[in-house]
Amino acid sequence: MKIPVVQRILSANDQIAAENRARFDAAGVFVLNVMASPGAGKTSLILATVPRLLPEVQVGVIEGDVASTIDADRIAAAGIPVVQINTGGSCHLDAPMVRSALEQLPLAGLNLLFVENVGNLICPAEFRLGAHLAVVLSSVPEGHDKPYKYPGIFTGADVVLLNKVDLLPHFDFDVEYFRRGLEALHSDIPFFLISCRTGEGMQKWVQWLLQRRGKNSEPQRKTQNA
Amino acid sequence: MKIPVVQRILSANDQIAAENRARFDAAGVFVLNVMASPGAGKTSLILATVPRLLPEVQVGVIEGDVASTIDADRIAAAGIPVVQINTGGSCHLDAPMVRSALEQLPLAGLNLLFVENVGNLICPAEFRLGAHLAVVLSSVPEGHDKPYKYPGIFTGADVVLLNKVDLLPHFDFDVEYFRRGLEALHSDIPFFLISCRTGEGMQKWVQWLLQRRGKNSEPQRKTQNA
Description:
Two copies of one chain form a homodimer.
Chain A: H1 12-27, E1 30-36, H2 42-53, E2 59-65, H3 70-77, E3 82-86, H4 95-102, E4 112-116, E5 133-139, H5 146-149, H6 151-155, E6 159-163, H7 175-185, E7 191-193, H8 202-216
Parallel strand pairs in A: 1-4, 1-5, 2-3, 2-4, 5-6, 6-7
Helix pairs in contact in A: 1-4, 2-8
């Protein structure tokens, strides 16, 4: 007797994430899900990346926060189209929240969309949004042990950025220890050292991002982590 | 007709938190639930506080992490009794986890217990452990907007510490803006500026902690947030 095997059924969130992805692809918009601890520099990453993409790449932003419009105000002040999601206490963005935000952020005219997740190094990893790229941002003041202590979010990352490297002289931070922790989770993870404040390393990151965006138009390279 | 009103029924977690609290009180152990973002310096706070309490106050530690024993190893290396809880992915400690840890950390002989929660500025606020004091630790590199963006955890705090103040010259951090955000949530919150690295501010914090511990033996001052 053959036992019937039911294929993995998409959760409600994953179902809506797939619908989001289809909308992004139809509109030709490449989408990044940016995840990090509170204060790692997610908004600063967006503000430092966008001017290096303009004018060829038109960028929009969805800001996720438990409360306040502080981050969205910073993005708007830079003249970038932005929608703020307040989760009202929830510790992560989910696919329905992103779908709602899209009602107020027309994809037409955009080529790239940053979704800044809630500051949290654990929960956001478990909720796909429909993005093409899972970006995990760590920062020097947080310490070099983060990949060892929070393996889930680093395992799901498509790229890892280490921010605030201009502060390395002021911290006992061993970059190789951090890198080894990362590579123990997956050996070929793209990893960039950056400083959003000084601009160090930004050119390499932006160059990689543009290449990765180009490759995404080849269907077989699409990722499913974000 | 009088409508019957059912008193708030304790959740399973709150029920076990109350049992934990009863055990702590019976043993005469004052318990701190230390909550913060990843890398804010929770372990460093414990390591900087304990030597200032010894030998009058005997201290134990429960370390909560998603994975690894990195923090517990640091505590053990300092000769402090410690138990590591690995949550296996969960984003916060809960009361049953603390109860389990107590099986391996005899309360007899201890006067004070630090419970270091998982690095997360959102979820731990929602799970009482049975502690007497909810300690929220923020740090200068995270930025001065944290009370505005993560109001839940700051609202539930009994005391807030701002760590890494030795780095203030390297950051655009407005202490008064941070303080105003905090006081908007509750006006009389005890607030200390500290540096676990240089020792700045530690004496005031420890003095306050010892006073607060003394007051807790007066039953009417017991708090319920932690």
